[in-house]
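Input sequence (158 aa), recorded before submission:
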Amino acid sequence: MGSTGDARRSAAVRRRDTLQRLRAERDMWVATAHPEHGPHQVPLWFLWDGHAVWVCTGAASATVRNLRADPRVRLALADTFDVVMLQGDAECHPDREVPDEAADAFAAKFGWDPRAEEGSFVYVRVLPETVRAWRGEPELRGRLIMRDGVWRDAGDRP
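Predicted structure, token format:
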């Protein structure tokens, strides 16, 4: 694991940096598990709506099957040095029942609207309960920046 020397961001700065990445990045690892078939992990495009993560995948995908059996999910941005991991419970919305605001924003970000496809898709909404963020060893301590859906620096706005 790399190191940033003695540099260590405050919780408020980590939250700011995390939110900036959630707004800007396109891809996220989505990890689910099925009680009989075990873990499954896949990269998917994602949308951050300011409160929750939205991904979209085929209705018959292992991701959707797993989430219907067990809604717990872990999400991670791709960078292994500037780590951002989110955990929460997923809500599955068939493409014909997804809120227009979320689906329209997803389509605007990616130039692709699953609602217009012939196949069936499911939008998955994850409201984070836990967020961890760290850059290198100096930030391992204090990496938990959201617990029980509340930012740990809530009184210290960046």
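Checked by second reader. The mean pLDDT is 93.
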